[in-house]
Amino acid sequence: MKLIGAGAVAALTVSFIANLANAGVVNVSYSSPSLDRWFYPFNFAAGTESSAPTFGAILVDGFDDRDSQFIIGFNTSTEVQPGLPRAAYKIRAARVRVSVSADNQARYDTTPISYQSLLPDTDPDYIPDPTVGKPTELFGVSFRNGISNATFAEDTPNFNGNPNGESLRSANDADIDTSLIPTDVSNQITNRFNAQPFAIGTTSTVNPGDLMPAATELTFDIDLCASGAKAYFQQSLRDGRILLNISSLEPAAGGPGGGTGDPTYPAFYTKENATAAAINALPKLQLTVQVGPISDMNADDGVTIDDLLDFLEAFSSGSLDADLNSDCGITIDDLLDYLDAFQQGL
C-alpha cells in the first residue's frame, strides 16, 4: 500500500459520491413497520393478524423449539440511501419497540436464557432456570426455499411443503456473524447451544417476575457488538430494508392455533391492530447512522487531514469509532483499512 505525503493529505478533500443524498448523520424514526408477520406453521391468515404470539415447542418432534416467531420489517431506502459500500453505513444506535397485546399473560424477564434450563430435568446437562419467565429476544433473519431479504413478504409461505417439520421454515431467527453468515437458532435446545440475540426486551414499568399488562412496551436497544449486529444492519441499509425477528422460548402446550390450556407466552400488537394504532403501540424502529465516506470521521461528507487525526485519536484510545471492519475490536486491520480508504478518498 502506497501512502500519500503530508502535503497531499492536507489538501485532500474528496467527496464519496457526488451530491450524495442523505449524507452525514441521519436520525430516522419509524412509527409503524412496512410489514409484520406472525410466522407460525399453522397461521393461515398471513400478514393480517392483529396480534403475534411468540412461544416455543421445546423438544417436540416435528416442531422448531422457537415455534412461533414475529417478523417485522422496515423499508429504509427513502430515508437512508441504499446501495453504498457496507462500511459507508456507520451505525451509531438502533432501537426497536413492540407492545404486549395479551393482558397479564406472560411474565417479564430479562435474564439471558441457557439451553440447559429447558432440557428435561433428568438430562445430565440440565440446569434449573433461576427465574420464573423467559426473555423476549430479538434476532436477525435468515432464509430458505429461495426467499431473501428482498423477496420476503407478509404472505410468503411458512414452508415449502409440509408444515410439520423442523428447520424447514422459509424465514427464521438467526445469529449473524461479522461475515453475515447466519446460524438458525430456531432449534437451539435440540441442537444444544446458546444463542446470542441482538437485544433482549426491557421495560421500566413492570418488575421482573411480574405479569405484563396489555400495552406494556418492550424496548430492544441493539447491542452493536452482539454477534454480527452491526454488519447485519449495515447490509440491511445497503439493501434498503431491515427485517428483524422477535421470539421467545416460553413454552406452549397443544397444537395448531397457539396451544391449549393456560398460556404463559407473550404476544404483541401488529400494524393491523386498530387499537394499537390508536394508542401508538405499533412496532417501531429508531436508527442513528452516519452515511458517507468510510474515512469521514467528523460527518462533514468530506475527507481531510482532520478525519485522519480523529481516526488516529480514536484508534489509540481503543474507541469503537475506529472499528472499520465491524468486528467490535480495534486492531491493526482497522488502521490499515482506514489508511487505504483515506488514501483513496473513500
Account of the protein in words:
- This protein has 346 residues and is an alpha+beta fold.
- It is 14% helix and 22% strand.
- The protein has five helices and 13 strands.
- It has helices at residues 6-11, 229-239, 274-278, 305-317, 332-344, and strands spanning 24-30, 35-39, 51-53, 69-75, 89-99, 136-143, 171-176, 182-184, 199-200, 217-221, 241-248, 267-269, 284-291.
- Strands 2, 4, 6, 7, 8, 9 and 11 form a seven-stranded antiparallel sheet that branches. Strands 1-13-5-10 form a four-stranded antiparallel sheet. A two-stranded antiparallel ribbon has the order 3-12.
- Strand 7 and strand 8 form a beta hairpin.
- It starts with 5 loop residues before the first helix and ends with a helix.
- Mean pLDDT is 88; it is low at 1-22.
Shape: globular
Order of helices and strands: HEEEEEEEEEEHEEHEHH
Counting H and I runs of at least 4 residues, what is the number of helices?
5
Amount of helix: 10-25%
Q: Segments where pLDDT lies below 50 for 5+ residues?
A: 1-22
Q: Roughly what fraction of the amino acids lie in strands?
A: 15-25%
Largest sheet: 7 strands, antiparallel
Q: Over all CA atoms, what is the radius of gyration?
A: 22 Å
Structural class: alpha+beta
Mean pLDDT: 88
Distance between the termini: 15 Å
- Annotation, overall tally of beta strands: 13
Short description, anyone?
By secondary structure, this protein is an alpha+beta fold. 14% of the residues lie in helices and 22% in strands.
Pick out its properties:
346 residues, alpha+beta, 7-stranded antiparallel β-sheet, 4-stranded antiparallel β-sheet, 14% helix, globular
